[in-house]
């Protein structure tokens, strides 16, 4: 194996609590990677020898972003719907059915190419781990196909057969829940790590969401929940009660919801791209952080509510609109995402961690929020391989 010494790092973000501050930063730092892992971090002056040397030229090095919530297996787009929204129309989950029709009509090759395109687009922006959901098939075959394709690109695959009730079951939602918890789950569980449900008016209520999640848990899947996005509902409490890894969106929360999240191991995953693209009020990250909840930031990349793949954009919005400091937002986009995916090998830089690294074209991670909309990727390594 070949080792590489990355030296002359202006600011190293480790997310390691043994170093100072929330981001565990080290100044004038160096990192050694060997094969797919990090083997050494510290001051450049104390760095050991390595086979190769990379001069970071005083720039900031971060863990690659962990995007723990994305819907990448789809065809078509929803430009017309976005245009209508920007002329005043409200977002509705009903638009999901437009993408379901386009996705069902697409070939396996088209869907695979689409996922590949988005994973590469994310990589170019520093995202080295991404979760990918099904949810635009809504038949046994189409959901299983979406997960088979997703699994070629990431181990973080999520069964979201319960995205909305399939059009064929519009008059029989109970029948659809039976399908999602029965034959569809049988076909999908072998290809999925997680089970998710859109718990919302117009999608699935608390009882239906509980049925979907408990059926998934019985098949060995770990729950995560689309919760409290468009209105207040039972999603967050259900996520906490079932020990979900993450409650996602968390836009409409009562004090009891915030307290429940803070007292639990369930991460509050905030998705500012969705509020941006639906012209809705942002979730209150400050309230969650002050209560002691763990917060993650993710893109929610999908053609309906949030067609961004940029974690840097989410960081900038979270800082400007959601009460987060730049350090908190960067932490949420790296270590927070890792927590939401229960991953201990990514989201931080320390000996033994996977060598997922983002070198910024900037001296400090603050620039991600300070220079919104500016492409700041200088280099990206994923599992020790230089990808960008
Ligand atoms: O996370 N909320 C449910 N699902 C997606 C939106 C999907 C769509 O509109 O196509 C979300 O925002
Ligand atoms: Fe989503």
Automatic annotation (TrEMBL):
UniProt-annotated binding residues for Zn(2+): 69, 71, 226, 300
GO biological process terms, semicolon-separated: L-histidine catabolic process to glutamate and formamide; L-histidine catabolic process to glutamate and formate
Top-rank EC class of the record's enzyme: hydrolase
Record's cofactor remark: Binds 1 zinc or iron ion per subunit.
Pathway the protein contributes to: Amino-acid degradation; L-histidine degradation into L-glutamate; N-formimidoyl-L-glutamate from L-histidine: step 3/3
Gene3D superfamilies linked: Metal-dependent hydrolases, Urease, subunit C, domain 1
Catalytic function, reaction form: 4-imidazolone-5-propanoate + H2O = N-formimidoyl-L-glutamate
Subcellular location as annotated: Cytoplasm
Binding residues annotated for Fe(3+), in chain numbering: 69, 71, 226, 300
UniProt keyword list: Cytoplasm, Histidine metabolism, Hydrolase, Iron, Metal-binding, Zinc
Gene Ontology cellular component list: cytoplasm
Cofactor(s) recorded in Swiss-Prot or TrEMBL: Zn(2+); Fe(3+)
Residue numbers binding N-formimidoyl-L-glutamate: 136, 302, 304
InterPro entries registered for this protein in UniProt: Amidohydro-rel, HutI, Metal-dep_hydrolase_composite, Metal_Hydrolase
Keyword Cell membrane among UniProt keywords: no
Residue sites binding 4-imidazolone-5-propanoate per the record: 78, 136, 163, 229, 305
Record's function text: Catalyzes the hydrolytic cleavage of the carbon-nitrogen bond in imidazolone-5-propanoate to yield N-formimidoyl-L-glutamate. It is the third step in the universal histidine degradation pathway.
Family (UniProt): Belongs to the metallo-dependent hydrolases superfamily. HutI family.
PANTHER family recorded: IMIDAZOLONEPROPIONASE (PTHR42752), IMIDAZOLONEPROPIONASE-RELATED (PTHR42752:SF1)
The protein's name in its UniProt record: Imidazolonepropionase
């Amino acid at each position: 194996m070949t080792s590489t010494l990355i030296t002359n790092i202006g600011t190293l973000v480790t997310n390691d609590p043994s170093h100072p501050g929330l981001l565990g930063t080290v100044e004038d730092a160096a990192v050694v990677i060997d094969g797919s892992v990090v083997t050494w971090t510290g001051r450049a002056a104390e760095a050991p020898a390595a086979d190769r040397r990379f001069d970071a030229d005083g720039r900031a090095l971060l863990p690659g972003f962990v995007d723990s919530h994305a819907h990448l297996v789809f065809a078509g787009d929803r430009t017309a719907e976005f245009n209508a929204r920007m002329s005043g129309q409200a977002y509705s989950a009903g638009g999901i059915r437009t993408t379901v029709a386009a996705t069902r009509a697409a070939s396996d090759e088209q869907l695979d190419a689409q996922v590949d395109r988005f994973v590469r687009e994310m990589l170019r922006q520093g995202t080295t781990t991404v979760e990918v959901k099904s949810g635009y098939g809504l038949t046994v075959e189409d959901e299983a196909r979406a997960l088979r394709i997703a699994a070629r690109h990431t181990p973080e695959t999520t069964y979201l057969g319960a995205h909305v009730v399939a059009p064929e079951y519009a008059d029989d939602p109970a029948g659809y829940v039976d399908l999602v918890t029965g034959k569809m789950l049988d076909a999908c569980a072998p290809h999925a790590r997680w089970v998710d449900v859109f718990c919302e008016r117009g999608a699935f209520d608390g009882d239906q969401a509980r049925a979907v999640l408990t059926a998934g848990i019985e098949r060995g899947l770990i729950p995560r929940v689309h919760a409290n996005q468009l209105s207040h509902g039972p999603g967050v409490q259900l996520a906490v009660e079932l020990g979900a890894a993450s409650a996602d969106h968390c836009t409409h929360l009562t004090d009891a919801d915030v307290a429940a999240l803070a007292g639990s191991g369930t991460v509050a995953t905030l998705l500012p791209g969705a509020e941006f693209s639906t012209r809705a009020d942002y979730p209150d990250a400050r309230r969650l952080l002050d209560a002691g909840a763990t917060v993650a930031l993710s893109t929610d990349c999908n053609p309906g509510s949030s067609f961004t793949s940029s974690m840097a954009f989410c960081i900038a919005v979270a800082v400007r609109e959601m009460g987060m400091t730049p350090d908190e937002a960067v932490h949420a986009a790296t270590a927070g995402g890792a927590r939401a995916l229960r991953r201990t090998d990514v989201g931080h830089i320390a000996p033994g961690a996977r060598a997922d690294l983002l070198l910024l074209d900037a001296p400090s991670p603050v620039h991600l929020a300070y220079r919104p909309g500016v492409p700041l990727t200088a280099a990206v390594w994923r599992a020790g391989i230089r990808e960008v």
